[in-house]
Write a structure and sequence with these properties.
With 177 residues, this protein is mainly beta. Helix content is 8%, strand content 41%. The longest helix is centred in the N-terminal third of the chain and has 10 residues. It is an enzyme of class 3 (hydrolase).
Length: 177
Amino acid sequence: MVLSDRTIFSMLEKGTLKISPMEWDQVQPASVDIRLGNTFSIVEDSPTGIITLDKEIRYKTIESDTYVLLPNQFVLATTMEYFELPNDLTAFVEGRSSLGRMGLFIQNAGWVDPGFKGEITLELYNVNRCAIELKAGRRVGQLVFSRMDAMALKPYNGKYQGQKGATGSKAFLDEEV
């Protein structure tokens, strides 16, 4: 069940859902707007030109209130907000259609597990022929919350728990299958 603005407001007031910093007008009828933070990371060039899943990837990270995303460029960014989800609530990250119509894709894995705490890393990609200027504080997407039918037996406590800033891939930490 997708949560309504009424339920979101109630959870924020009770402290069962935490979002900081947040303005009340970020709450929409069935979502909460997320704003762009000021941390951006790009993958550093590899001597071989190949990224492998079993080795740590190096990133160049900058803090800036403005970032110019070039055509066909990929960058990690972060939300301004820090989230704390209870163990019976999950969320979906969605881009804003007005930005998608400009060629800005928010390629987030799209899922926030119950129990997650941290800023959300966003994967931004510019499919336009023109550069896109990104500014910290700009609303770039929304979180749609859904209540689970029961508390999670194993709430999220993974490698991205508590993350702040544009956090690079930690796929190299995954166990072999």
